């Protein structure tokens, strides 16, 4: 059977429930993304793959596409993304939900089977539609899949970007993975993964990109640090080491690249008002401004450092945390 459509309010006996669109902020990034994605294209591409004739309705295509977007955006396992979907109205809206649901949408094992069905061509279709959504709101983008700990893959990624746009001016190193455990419970793999992604990945990307930036007469590199590298946070030893190393790398690179008109800075956000993989517990009284950072405030800092007004700033770690941590 082809993917079923979400059940109507009448069939659920939910005539008097409030729709999600009346509960959420429609200017939220996930709400805006939900509005620009051409979901019908996914149905057209994937529905034939699930016409098994078994008599059992398949899972809605939009639900599966949305769950996979969230899985990769927030670096979650199948089990985690399904469980946390229940807690978040924005996630449910992105996945095509009309009303807030309290039950798991699928068995997590369904995601593995779905990926096997759509295969590599299906993944490429999802990327293509993401690019189309960006371009629909006036942006330009190219999708590049690469393991940034693999230099050959990074080189291919940079080559594809230059081929598409003709030049490369800005690099933002933002990849990260976490190991959240007490120190004595960490395996070497737990310790090594955040350092490999954060430091080795930044090394490969910077070394691959810098020659291209030099060819256009200069540009900017932003390394996304974090609070973990500057103040103690329990159970975050690998991330703390990686982010502290990133701040040191920023200063060293800034000194070397200034002669090529390339400024290099580190932006270290504090707690931010973003959609999270799990509920975030934090005492707002610790923040002098009494609130979390808005994503736009972090983005504005990055844009300033990459723009004309930030050209003379280099080698700095800029904290965007409302005073939670202050430099000497």
Could you characterize what this model shows?
There is one protein chain. With 328 residues, the protein is of the alpha/beta class. It has two domains: 20-127, no CATH class; 144-320, NAD(P)-binding Rossmann-like Domain (Rossmann fold, 3-Layer(aba) Sandwich). It has ten helices and four strands; from the N terminus they run αααααααβαβαβαβ. Strands 1-2-3-4 form a four-stranded parallel sheet, with helices on both faces. Helix 3 (61-73) packs across helix 4 and helix 8 (188-215) runs parallel beside helix 9. The chain is globular. The termini are far apart.
Q: What are the key terms here?
A:
four-stranded parallel beta sheet; 10 helices; globular; alpha/beta; single chain; Rossmann fold; 2 domains; 328 residues; 4 strands
In a nutshell, what does this entry contain?
The protein has ten helices and four strands, in the order H-H-H-H-H-H-H-E-H-E-H-E-H-E.
Topology:
Elements: H1 29-36, H2 39-46, H3 61-73, H4 78-85, H5 89-94, H6 109-136, H7 151-165, E1 170-173, H8 188-215, E2 219-224, H9 237-257, E3 262-269, H10 295-306, E4 317-320
Parallel strand pairs: 1-2, 2-3, 3-4
Helix pairs in contact: 2-6, 3-4, 7-8, 8-9
- The side-by-side strand order for the widest beta sheet comes to 1-2-3-4
Number of domains: 2
CATH architecture of the largest domain: 3-Layer(aba) Sandwich
Q: On the 0-100 scale, what is the average pLDDT?
A: 87
SSE succession: HHHHHHHEHEHEHE
Work out the helicity level: 40-55%
| Strand-pairing-aware structural class | alpha/beta
Q: How would you name the CATH homologous superfamily of the largest domain?
A: NAD(P)-binding Rossmann-like Domain
Tally of individual helices: 10
Shape: globular
Cα-based radius of gyration, to the nearest Å = 22 Å
Poorly predicted regions: 7-12
Largest sheet: 4 strands, parallel
From the N-terminal CA to the C-terminal CA, the straight-line distance is 64 Å
Q: What is the number of beta strands?
A: 4
Query: How much of the sequence is in beta strands?
Result: 5-15%
């Amino acid at each position: 059977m082809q993917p079923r459509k979400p059940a109507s309010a009448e069939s659920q006996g939910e005539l008097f429930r409030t729709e999600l669109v009346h509960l959420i902020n429609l200017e939220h990034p996930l709400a805006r993304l939900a509005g620009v994605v051409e979901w019908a294209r996914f149905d057209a591409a994937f529905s034939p793959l699930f016409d098994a004739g078994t008599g059992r309705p398949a899972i809605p295509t939009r639900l599966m596409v949305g769950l996979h977007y969230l899985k990769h955006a927030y670096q979650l396992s199948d089990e985690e993304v399904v469980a946390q979907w229940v807690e978040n109205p924005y996630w449910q809206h992105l996945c095509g939900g009309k009303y807030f649901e309290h039950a798991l949408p699928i068995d997590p094992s369904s995601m593995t089977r779905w990926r096997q069905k759509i295969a590599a061509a299906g993944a490429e279709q999802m990327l293509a539609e993401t690019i189309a959504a960006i371009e629909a709101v006036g942006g330009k983008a190219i999708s590049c899949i690469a393991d940034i700990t693999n230099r050959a893959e990074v080189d291919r990624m940079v080559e594809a970007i230059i081929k598409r746009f003709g030049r490369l001016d800005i690099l933002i190193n933002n990849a990260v993975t976490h190991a959240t455990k007490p120190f004595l419970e960490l395996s070497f793999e737990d310790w090594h993964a955040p350092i490999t992604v954060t430091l080795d990945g930044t090394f490969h990307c910077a070394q691959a990109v810098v020659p291209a930036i030099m060819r256009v007469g200069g540009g900017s590199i932003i390394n996304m640090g974090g609070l973990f590298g500057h103040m103690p946070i329990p159970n975050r030893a690998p991330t703390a080491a990686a982010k502290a190393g990133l701040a040191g790398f920023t200063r060293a690179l800034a000194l070397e690249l200034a002669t090529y008109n390339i400024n290099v800075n580190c932006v270290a956000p504090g707690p931010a008002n973003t959609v999270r993989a799990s509920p975030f517990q934090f005492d707002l009284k610790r923040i002098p401004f009494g609130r979390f950072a808005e994503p736009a405030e972090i983005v504005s800092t990055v844009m300033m450092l990459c723009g004309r007004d930030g050209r003379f700033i280099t080698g700095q770690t800029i904290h965007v945390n409302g005073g939670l941590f202050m430099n000497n």
